[in-house]
Design a protein that fits this description.
The complex is a heterodimer. By secondary structure, chain A is mostly helical. In chain A, 69% of the residues lie in helices and 0% in strands. Chain B has a domain of 181 residues: MetI-like (MetI-like fold, Orthogonal Bundle). The chains are: A mainly alpha, B mainly alpha.
Chain lengths: 330, 331
């Protein structure tokens, strides 16, 4: 314990040779130790990792289980109602989560394959947001002056924009534009649109956070020292500033990953995102609402999957934030 | 102070003008012929041409923009002779899909959205702040744990999932809150029907927001309770209740006005999801329908209205903040 208390003070950057005597731990090691002690966080991390992996290896898993997301099981569907013949939405050893009404497709494989597009949008939009936010945040915070003022104005302007409205309003025309330019077709164009537009309206908050961090970092002694030693701008940015920005980056990751996952499902739900025959979680949920009174299991499985993943991301995010906060350790 | 207000007003006006230009430009450069969209399947070249002149799409872009802007202040006339009609000020354009002035459409939809947003705001402020204070006062007690769970669920459940769950299990399956077939009724005409009509939408919206507000209030109250001036207040013998009300809460809740103002502004533009799920004829559903119908004037108007509300609310919130928190200096 006593060693960890030192961490917040200036002694965490020890003099040469001090670490041999004291066996000091870097803030990173301390954060890792704190994280490992948080059971909820570890479980959330394992769950998140498992979900991501099973999404990545969906074809393999489906092959092992003998499931095909596109195979129709019309023989197991009642012609009159379109519902699965078997009890509980057709849940069986063969189809662990049951069948989709109407087409008789296997729900588990649909969820697994559907998660790939949902997660793809989530991850790419987050990466793009991080990139734009880091670029503008560092530019504004480090270069200051006119650059900072310009970025600030653009941020103000974008924040005044009703983002949700614009996404809804621009979906059709922009997807059309992307298709005409020949960048991507069909659902590819829709996925691209979602990623671009989510990033376009999403980077501002992150940029502000990074800017404030860079502003305070660049006043710190080690940056002044680097400047005094004649380090170039790029050296200061890449070797002094960026390595110290990973805490806010992780915080933003933990917030924007679940945010974008929900956003994708919301837009698919509203009919703006990916269209059938493609499928994502949002589309599955939207589809399941039609059968909610006759076949609640479909609706519950689809929504609970989404909520569980979002919950796991949130819990993981909380745990990481706690681990990164030296004050959290009492 | 007056100087500051004037400057902020000017800034807000500039931002609004820029947003209107941007939105207008975006819709101009879309790959659609607005005149061809006016008649749908019945389109013939001469009808398109006639509509183009009638609605002013034959004029250059900047002139159309000017007509749109001036229409807001002086109203706008369309067509000539016996086919002429006009939308009085403030005119936000003419919906050729619904054959009505956009302003009239908004006038119908606004009360619904307003009722939804105000009701939800009241509900989430009471629940969020109340639960936040309780959780902070009784830190590490079952109440605190309960509030943590509430916050987690609230932030993890997307609004459309909450809405659907409530709708399905409270109305469709168990009929606890009866399904309403009468549509929107004003609170002044029929208060009880009004409350039943909006109850589930309010809960849906408030659920997600109150979770965020609970988390915020809890951490703010805990943080401020450790400040020196709180200890001073307690040490000089003030009752803990008075300290909480007059010293802790005032400091903790001032930043919440910013948050609440902006969240509220976002909802006034139209709670698209909630309105879609509960089929409320508000601004959000109107604009979503307009998007699907390619009813461009309506989309343009609702987008601009939403932007205007955000900009104005931003201004109000900043001014209010300066009044609530004496540490904030304006100028």
């Amino acid at each position: 314990m006593s060693i960890e208390v030192v961490e917040g003070s200036s002694a965490s950057e020890p003099l040469l040779g001090a670490d041999e005597e004291l066996k000091g731990r870097s803030p990173r090691e301390l954060a890792w130790r704190r994280f490992r002690r948080n059971k909820v966080g570890v479980i959330a991390a394992i769950f998140t990792l498992g979900t991501l992996l099973s999404s990545l290896f969906a074809p393999l898993i489906c092959k092992v289980l003998g499931l095909d997301p596109n195979e129709l099981h019309l023989d197991q569907i009642k012609v009159s109602t379109g519902l699965p013949k078997a009890y509980l939405g057709g849940i069986s050893w063969e189809h662990p989560l049951g069948l989709l009404p109407g087409t008789g497709r296997d729900l588990l494989s649909q969820l697994l394959y559907g998660s790939r597009i949902s997660f793809l949008v989530m991850i790419l939009a987050t990466v793009a947001t991080l990139f734009v936010g880091l670029l503008t945040g560092i530019a504004g915070g480090y270069l200051k002056g006119r650059v900072d003022a310009t970025i600030g104005r653009v941020t103000d302007f974008l924040l005044a924009f009703p983002a949700f409205f614009m996404i809804v309003a621009l979906a059709e025309p922009l997807v059309d534009r992307i298709q005409r330019l020949g960048i991507a077709q069909g659902n590819g164009a829709r996925i691209l649109f979602l990623i671009i537009i989510l990033t376009f309206f999403g980077w501002t908050g992150f940029s502000r956070l990074i800017r404030s961090q860079v502003l305070s970092l660049s006043e710190r002694d080690f940056v002044t020292a680097a400047t005094a030693l004649g380090a170039s701008r790029s050296r200061i940015i890449f070797h002094e500033l960026i390595p110290n920005l990973w805490a806010p980056v992780i915080v933003v990751l933990s917030l924007s990953l679940p945010g974008y996952l929900t956003a994708e499902s919301v837009f698919s739900f509203l009919g703006i995102g990916v269209q059938p025959p493609g499928f994502t979680w949002g589309l599955l949920i939207s589809n399941s609402t039609q059968y909610v009174t006759n076949m609640p299991s479909f609706f519950l499985i689809a929504t609970v999957s989404l909520v569980l993943v979002v919950l796991a991301f949130n819990l993981l995010g909380d745990a990481v934030r706690d681990a990164l906060d030296p004050k959290a350790d009492k | 102070m007056i100087n500051y207000v004037l400057r902020r007003l000017l800034y807000a006006a500039v931002i609004l003008l820029l947003v209107s230009m941007a939105v207008y430009a975006i819709f101009q450069f879309l790959p659609f012929d607005p005149a061809a969209l006016t008649c749908g399947k019945n389109c013939r070249p001469n009808l398109i041409a006639a509509n183009r002149v009638r609605l002013g799409f034959d004029k250059p872009v900047w002139e159309q923009y000017w007509l749109f802007l001036s229409g807001i202040f002086v109203g706008r006339d369309y067509g000539v002779g016996s086919a002429a009609f006009s939308c009085p000020a403030p005119s936000l354009g003419y919906s050729f899909r619904q054959n009505a002035c956009v302003t009239d459409l908004i006038k119908q939809a606004l009360p619904v959205t307003l009722s939804l947003a105000i009701g939800a705001l009241i509900l989430w402020l009471i629940v969020g702040i109340g639960l936040g204070i309780l959780a902070a006062r009784f830190k590490d007690s079952p109440i605190d744990t309960g509030s943590t769970v509430f916050v987690l669920i609230g932030t993890s459940l997307p609004t459309f999932v909450t809405g659907l769950l409530l709708l399905i299990y409270l109305t469709l399956k168990n009929n606890i809150i009866p399904l309403n077939f009468d549509g929107y009724v004003s609170i002044f005409d029929h208060p009880s029907k009004f409350f039943i009509y909006f109850l589930l939408p309010w809960i849906t919206l408030a659920f997600a927001f109150s979770a965020i507000y609970t988390r915020y209030t809890r951490s703010a109250v805990i943080e401020i309770s450790g400040e020196d001036y709180i200890r001073t207040a307690l040490a000089k013998g003030l009752k803990p209740k008075v300290v909480l009300r007059k010293h802790t809460l005032r400091a903790a809740l001032a930043p919440l006005t910013t948050l609440a103002g902006l969240d509220f502004a976002g909802l006034l533009g139209g709670a698209i999801l909630t309105e879609t799920i509960f089929d409320l004829p508000g601004l959000g559903r109107m604009s979503l329908k307009a998007v699907n119908d390619f009813d461009l004037p309506v989309v343009l108007a609702t987008t601009l209205l939403a932007a205007a509300i955000v900009v104005i609310m931003n201004l109000i919130v900043d001014l209010l903040y300066a009044v609530l928190d004496p540490r904030v200096r304006v100028g």
